[in-house]
Amino acid sequence: MEPVELERELQKPWEELSTQINTDDRQQVVAFLDSITPADTALAVSRLNAEEQNRLLTLLSPEEAAEVIEDISDAQGADLIEVIQPELAAAILEELGSDHVADLLGELDEDDANAIIDKMAPEEAEEARQFLAYEPDTAGGLMVSEYLDFLSDQTVQDVLDELQANREKYAEYDVQYLYVTDEDNRLQGVLRMRDLLFPKRTTKLTTLMISNPYRVNVNDSLDDLHNFFEEHNLFGVPVVDDDSRLLGIVLPEAVEEEKSNQSTDQFLGFSGIIGGEEFRSMPLLSRSGRRLSWLSLNIVLNILAASVIAFYQDTLAAVIALAVFLPMVSDMSGCSGNQAVAVSMRELSLGLVRPTELLRVLAKEASLGVINGVALGVLLGGVAYFWKGNAFLGLVVGGALAVNTVVAVSLGGLIPLLLKRAKLDPALVSSPLLTTVTDMCGFFFVLSFASLVLDKF
In the predicted model, is pLDDT for residue 243 greater than 60? Predict the structure, then answer.
């Protein structure tokens, strides 16, 4: 094959994958998937139609299908497994790591997830249900169950025999530490792999282990875990319940990945994409619903803001120049308010402010709002005066911007805290709520101030 032709085919890996699927030759499909990068695999699978995706997973063995699932996002993986038979989906999930299984099942609706879990092996099913019981952004939701633990009265020889007997299984584990527990599975200590190299084979683990090791509670938040790994440079940390029973291990890369996913969700929320990640390979109606859920609410919010203009339509008709400055006042105030939102969001994520510290935040933001409001009001008022030569127009526009800036930054600082106290997502709601309020207040201040000095225009 000529290099140019090969390059052209690699630019559209989905076409080659589709061709291979239609041959029903599993070995050819596997060989092609092995020859391309994970990124190309994700691209190729996303461009297949639903029938081809179904045939791909059916054609491959559960282990091979699991490798494909690992190369794509959880949202895309969930879309693939929810349309195949629960028996096949269960077999594929059993080939994945415990944390990946929990992530995929968490993307499905409850009925689909339960249908798949019911077809899993009893031990795997019980573990999946346990993982789903935890919030995804906690230690319980991020931990993995693939770890090695031994009883405190076992010896080095016992550990080596166990590792040798199950070397193929444990080769897939991310093993950096061994954990020592008592008969009730309570965490007693930790061993580094190198601790097993030099002692006598008859040495008991209790004499080698590091007692009272670092640990995190199963309910610790993502921020708690992030701060832990920032402070402690470890390859992993054991997760325990309130009775110190060992439940799993959290790896630092899992924490960083979840932080990244959280940032992505916040960005999508600010952009008006509700319900998580959206891909153009998803069903059309599903994508439409995710966007309309926000756009429909936005219509209502904008009607509320526009109603203020309708109330003062006589004033606006008398001084048409005000129409030029209405969007400027609301937009500039909104920008100031969003700065305050960003600061509150950042301080909440870092634990530098508590949701109850409303008065402190209000005092800090209001004082800043006065300074910035006066500065911006003088600038915009000066523009209005030099444009129309009317000092009252400048006073109305500048005064409205100054007052609205104070309102915007004060609310911008408080709204994330109030939403956090109400157990709502501040990242999703703060910005649109603030925008609506600043628009309404901006229109109200401009038009009400103008009504007071209408005879001066």
Answer: yes
